Amino acid sequence: MDSEVQMQAFASAELGLALGKNFVIADQDLSFGITPKFQKLRTYALIASVQDFDADNAEDSMVEKSAFNFDLGAAWHYENWRLGLSVRDIIQQEIDVKTHDGTKIDSYKLNPMATIGSAYNGDFVTVAVDIELTKQERFANLNDETQYLRFGIEGNAWDWAQLRAGYEIDMQDNADSAITAGIGLSPFDVVSLDIAGNYAGSNQLGASANLAFTF
């Protein structure tokens, strides 16, 4: 009961506008996109004995930072084949991690992340693989870098509904492998609703929802 626990956490939220355009260059179909976005970054820290540990007390240590950033992407299309490259968070961000009394104990880096991917896109099924070319650095004083290899498959019902499944592996061996699943609804290709989740054990659960309109 005299043992000490040190907790560090990072959270982010972002609001952006995705812009993209298709081009034909040397008889090749190419797409380019950019997403300017506003980010809100937060860190939390808590050092306490096992007996006194309460995660809610980490709110007292919150450090918050607002930032502007943007993502870039490019894709090549040939019949049913796709090859893409994306770079997220072009402008590297760094935010301090402090205890409730203002003592800095670490920092968190949001570094640019480059990913390359390839896919076969058929009428009723899509199979894809992508690999992160760079490591996500995360906390400076911890060995917690991640770099993922991902596989996925999607079944498509006449472009109105999609059912997806995937698997991801951390090549840095700092995070458990995870399975992912999702469903998408896109009637008339005007409104798109995507709901997804991932599972890598009782300590790693996630969910996301995305609503998009195409004009």
Can you walk through the features of this model?
This protein is mainly β and 215 residues long. The chain folds into 2 domains: 1-138, no CATH class; 146-215. Helices cover 0% and strands 67% of the residues. The protein contains no helices and 15 strands. The protein has strands spanning 4-16, 19-25, 28-49, 63-78, 81-88, 93-98, 104-110, 113-121, 125-132, 138-139, 148-157, 161-170, 178-185, 191-199, 205-213. Strands 1, 2, 3, 4, 5, 8, 9, 11, 12, 13, 14 and 15 form a 12-stranded antiparallel sheet that branches. Strands 6-7-10 form a 3-stranded antiparallel sheet, with no helix packed on it. Strand 14 and strand 15 (205-213) form a beta hairpin. The chain starts with a strand and ends with a strand. This is TraF-related protein.
